[in-house]
Amino acid sequence: MGLRDLAYSAYERRLAARIDQERRPRHIGVIMDGNRRWAKAVGQHIAEGHQRGADKIHDLLEWCEEAGVEVVTLWLFSTDNLNRPAAELEDLLRIIEGAVRSLAETGRWRIRTVGALDLMPGEFSRSLKEITAETTANPGLVVNAAIGYGGRKEIADAVRSLLCEHADRGTSIEDLAQIIDVEHITEHLYTAGQPEPDLIIRTSGEQRLSGFMLWQSAHSEFYFCEAYWPAFRKIDFLRALRDFAQRQRRYGA
User: Keywords for this entry (predicted)?
Assistant: First the structure.
């Protein structure tokens, strides 16, 4: 191990030691941004950037397990991504399917797809459903693979599901208007039954949510990292946890 690696390891241990373990996040959302820009910066094809980003997911989940995180939501594919050039879109879907399959094959994590899979190509959607169904009994943390995901669409889908449910019960619009509240909508989100994200991390230096978990992030803490996603390191993750542990969470107060 070289001198630089030794220094890195020592710094990593110091960071980990300074994190208050009683104030760790239960649920972390990650906007894995910067694959394309990383590829351009290092002179690689865009597909290589997406592949490097997919490979990084294994590292992230291992770090989350070490930190005691229970749920991780990964934004793998937004509804806006459907507008990408056909060749890039084909590569991206192939890489995403391979990434989800690779996570499932570890036998460690419970993988759920969250998003509008009906917008995705049929064979791709069927394959993802088959892959994730095999992970339901796995013992590890829950991994939400946000694919075909947009925060506004999620809320619209939740409201639509709520309306359909009450229509089936024979509830009138007037009666529903009298009882509908935040909890009713929350129960119909893609992440129903899960804790809301305590911490949302976005890489690549962009400082916006871009529609990620709009409803669930009302009380989330945000951490924006300059590194492109393929270059995201464990020390970047530990810095995010340290930053989170040092914040005073006021929940709107």
Answer: Magnesium, Metal-binding, Transferase
- Per the annotation, binding residues are 33-38, 50, 78-80, 84, 202, 208-210, 221
What is the mean pLDDT, run by run of 10 residues, along the chain of 253 residues?
A: 75 83 92 97 96 98 96 96 90 97 97 94 95 95 97 96 94 92 96 97 97 97 98 97 87 58
Among candidate residues 138, 112, 108, 96, the one with its CA nearest the CA of residue 191: 112
Considering only CA atoms, which of 97, 202, 110, 203 is closest in space to residue 147?
Answer: 97
91 noted as active-site residue: no
Query: 181 an active-site residue?
Result: no
pTM of the model: 0.93
Q: Of how many residues is the chain composed?
A: 253
The domains found in the chain, sorted by start residue, are 24-150+197-246 (3.40.1180.10)
**Binding residue numbers for Mg(2+):** 33, 221
Closest to 129 (Cα-Cα) out of 106, 148, 118, 113: 113
Residue 4 burial (CB count, 10 A): 8
The predicted pLDDT at position 223 comes to 98
Paired sense of beta strands 27-31 and 71-78, if any: parallel
Residue 19: predicted pLDDT: 84
The tokens for 252 are: 């709107």
Considering the candidates 81, 91, 144, 198, report the single residue annotated as catalytic. Answer: 81
**Helix locations, the chain, DSSP H:** 3-17, 35-41, 46-67, 86-105, 122-133, 151-169, 173-179, 182-186, 234-246
